[in-house]
Amino acid sequence: MSNIGTRWKVLCMSCKKHFSFSQIVWELSLLGENFVNASSSPSETNLRQTCKKVMDLARDHRPWFGMEQEYVLLGIDGRPYGWPKKDLQPEDIFYCSIGADRVFGRDITECHYKACLYAGIKICGSNGESVPSQWEFQVGPCEGIDVSDHLWMARFILHRICEDFGAVVTFDPRPLSGEWNGSGCHTNYSTESMRKEGGLRHIENAIEKLRERHSYHISVYDPHGGKDNLRRLIGHTCTSSIHEFTAGINDCRTSIRVSHHVEQEGKGYLEDRRPASNCNPYAVIEAIVRTTILNKFHDENNGLEIEN
């Protein structure tokens, strides 16, 4: 514990000296990578350490990520934040809507956006989602592990800001029952070869590799081995089916989506729509790079690196 306490002391001193966000994240990352169990081996929850190793191995491919974090705001009583006493109906249109009777929590999400900009987090957008009180912010593009560092910090800031508004943020993938949409953490991904001329071929190759490892990715795209996504990836409400891998152009009901723009340009990125809103971002980007670049995945039964 003394080692952790020392690092927190250094971090606080760094803040007082007006160090940059990147320096603060560096201190936090060192703290995170030092979480160990009694046998001095990395803790089961210490996923940054292995992610960093994987990103270092893939450095020459220059993997870029952008993550779209969806969440739902709740009141202290557990009801959706700002909802009227008479519940709203899912068939109404709320996506990116305006009006005090349709949008709840805009002051929170705008405050969060400004706070992230002030902190130096690479936040690049925010918008209202398909459920009233459901919002999304985007982080990236970042190279390698940086996107996960920035997303973790953005989540922390969101929790802290919600305190001041008497609200609670939930990253549960399906906090509302019925026909309401769930929440995800769609992950946009590209390598240098995908971004160059002729990159669409490399995108298609990556999609085929992801197809072969669908079960593996589902198992790491939420913190409970796929059980959370089982409630969310149901084949409708703008999701694919958890039981089937699909890919398509501009189709929100697929596992992997490629935009019309990417198809027309013949290069760009792919969007993995499977990660849940409560995913560990280190686990997500590690799995994507293992599958598409390193052609390896982690066998939890014996710890071996297995070739695809």
TrEMBL record:
Ranges of residues in domain GS catalytic: 47-308
TM region positions: none
UniProt GO BP: glutamine biosynthetic process
SMART domains referenced in this protein's UniProt entry, alphabetically: Gln-synt_C (SM01230)
Subcellular location, record wording: Cytoplasm
Keywords: ATP-binding, Cytoplasm, Ligase, Nucleotide-binding
The keyword DNA repair is assigned to this record: no
Pfam families: Gln-synt_C
Any Gene Ontology CC annotation: cytoplasm
Enzyme Commission number(s): 6.3.1.2
Domain of life: Eukaryota
GO MF, one annotated term: glutamine synthetase activity
Primary localization class, coarse: cytoplasm
InterPro entries membership: Gln_synth/guanido_kin_cat_dom, Gln_synth_cat_dom, Glutamine_Synthetase
Similarity-based family: Belongs to the glutamine synthetase family.
PANTHER family, alphabetized: GLUTAMINE SYNTHETASE
Protein known as: Glutamine synthetase
Organism: Leptobrachium leishanense (Leishan spiny toad)
Classification lineage: Eukaryota, Metazoa, Chordata, Craniata, Vertebrata
